[in-house]
Amino acid sequence: MLATLNTVLALFSDRTPELAALDIAERLGRPRSSVYRLLRTFEEAGFLDYDERSGRYRLGIRLAALGALAQQSSPLQRALHPVLIRLARDSGECATLVVRSGAIATTVDIVYAPQPLVVPGVLGGHPPLHASAGGKVLTAWLAEGERRALLGETLTRYTPATITDLPTLMEQLDDVRRSGVAIARGEWYADVYGMGAPVWDHTGAAAAAVTIGFPSVRAGAARLRQLQPLVARAAAEGTAVLGGTPRVACEADAPALATTSPHRPSTLDRRRRLRE
Q1: Contacts for 161 with CB less than 8 Å, ≥ 6 apart
Q2: Those residues with Cβ within 8 angstroms of residue 112's Cβ, 6 or more apart along the chain or in another chain
Q3: 56-59 vs 104-111, strand pairing mode
Q4: CA 131, CA 194: separation in Å to the nearest integer?
Q5: What is the predicted pLDDT for the residue at 74?
Q6: pTM of the entire structure?
């Protein structure tokens, strides 16, 4: 039953926050009658809510309560939450903490900034490795073979800006290693930009990514240059909290962000300028 509950809950996401029972039955590949009974059981336990007007299910309020409790339970979240608070305050943007388990990235903490127009984060959401700032950060410093194994040969297109060509993405991840900061330009959601940097642990591995998300209307070149050192500083603070050791991925990499000019264009930026 627990495995089935986990499978059903995994069907919901920020892109599919509500599902009809028929949709769930089709995705599970199970008879409707048995799925209806399962959904009723999960609803009675508080894991799902049923909307009489739309005839659809959504995640239940009990999960929100458990999520809030879990948010205070992880040592990593507790240790880095003050870093997110400072980043949200200094940048004026929504700050998030993202971790990776295998091929899945997960947002495990969020701090909102007092802006009239903000990009809402999704606690427990799964930003794609190839189309989000956090995902790129947690992928960039891996060995090339491990990167390819995680990303696969087919990259899902979410928006016209999503990079779906693997060699192009690999090149961009090399740029992330050289600069120390990843930027996602409307690649997961068309009007949303993201920026992130790695938090290193004592083994020299990227334990997490600190990121900010902001609307494209606040994503001009000057604004990006302003935000980049703030994100890098927050990641450095997080690394210090964990007693971590910052590193680059290979000997061929240039120095990290602290010694790299913020005006130095990435390979993809240079290509854009040539096309323009």
Answers
A1: 185, 186, 187, 190
A2: 88, 94, 118, 120, 121
A3: unpaired
A4: 10
A5: 64
A6: 0.68
DSSP state of 216: G
Residues 6+ apart with CB under 8 A from 91: 113, 212, 214, 227, 230, 231
* CA distance to 28, 138, 145, 176, per residue, from 246 (Å): 43, 14, 22, 14
Match 């409790």 to its residue by tokens: 69
Listed in sequence order, the residues at least 6 apart from 50 whose beta carbon sits closer than 8 Å to its beta carbon are: 39, 43, 56, 57
Amino acid residing at 244: G
The angle, 0 to 180 degrees and rounded to 10, between the axes of the packed helices 166-179 and 144-151 is 130
Burial 253-263 (b: 16+ CB within 10 A, else e): eeebbeeeeee
Distance between CA atoms of residues 79 and 8, nearest Å = 32
Tens of pLDDT, residue by residue over 8-62, are 888 887 678 889 999 999 999 999 888 988 898 888 888 888 888 889 998 876 6
